Predict the structure of Holliday junction branch migration complex subunit RuvA.
Amino acid sequence: MIGKLTGRLDYKASDHALIDVGGVGYVVHCSDRTLAALPGSGEIVSLYTEMLVREDLLQLFGFVTPYEKEWHRLLTSVQGVGAKASMAILGTLGAEGASRAITLGDATAIKAAPGVGPKLAQRVVMELKDKAPAVMAMGGTLDAAMDAVVEDDRPGDAAPAKPAPVRRPASNAQAEALSALQNLGYGPSDAAQAVAQAAENASDTADLIRQALRLLAPKD
């Protein structure tokens, strides 16, 4: 199983990139967002990967963060959601947007992804709504693991390899807020919904927690 690739970017196409790792070129399929985040040709790039293996097919799918990869795995666990549909959802909404939409039960947002119809969007929301909080809570841990891996990738005394530029996802703040709310006694589902809703306007983790607490406060 290939879980991560680091090498030079040969080129980017409409739905994939070719990464040269030690003279071997890997075709890695990516979402629109991931492709947009990659550097120019000839630059060093790092992608977390998921391999799809079938009798007549062998494909690699690439992700900038482990959090995005986990959402891909969760999305493709839904019947009718293949790798192509998952890439469309992540390319349209991003991992954080998909997380927020699913947690809030917003099938309309999922349906905005190309090729995803209303019935499939509703199925995604129904099947993943209860699983979303656990993935959100993993966000901070996964990002920390990613930082550690990047540090370990520095070869000996050579200059540090510069991986693809990464826009820090909101998953860190959301994971910390979700953990804080659960420590206060709120249920995972209620806490996740409040965090997802508050994340649209919060400026940082502390603000996210404050806004989520207001949403969870008993209404008169």
